[in-house]
Amino acid sequence: MAARFEELDFQQTPVGEISLRRRYDLTAQTDVYEVRLGEEYLMSSLFTVAERALATLGLDLLDRGDARVLVGGLGLGYTAHTALADPRVAELTVMDVAEPVLDWHRRGLLPETAGLAEDPRCHLVLRDFFQLVAAEPETTYDAILLDVDHTPGHVLHPSHAAFYTPAGLRSMRRHLAPDGVFALWSDDPPDAGFEDVLRQVFDRTSAEVVTFANPLTGGESANTVYLAR
User: 149, exposed or middle or buried, with CB in 10 Å at 0-12, 13-18, 19+?
Assistant: First the structure.
């Protein structure tokens, strides 16, 4: 019988101490995989509906095949895994600033997203997404899907805040192909202020509320996916 709790990995990274833990949740009656940065909770395999919706909602806006897609933030891999299920995705680049996160997938520590690292279309890259999009484009993408910070106003590092401004989004937009799609996950309800920022930069925008069952509360929870084209 597997242990009720197991720390699968713990490493120092440029952004702090990061750990991957597996525990058996008695309420949900399933193994739950969790990522923490120091003592800050980042993500859980118990709540993945919105992370998957980030890929499906974003890619649903594409009107082309042979798509080149960039995912900012690998985490437990649900957004990237869902993007690879779309046959129109010809190439998927997934960037994360923490080498241990990339290593978890290469080592197959996460059963629900197993095989992601072996897919020939998928390239796991150790790089800071925010530094990339602030620089001159090396290439362009048909879709950029971002899930790094908690919300546009609650960022993991102060340096990320500049991205969520008109200037930051315009810099990122240069990395999109014509009529390309940008999609962003957020833990909070739609923020009118950020929606206004998006409208300053993109022609078409929306904020989609994604609801899902919460077995811990017995009720429903929600995240937001911002979409821009």
Answer: buried
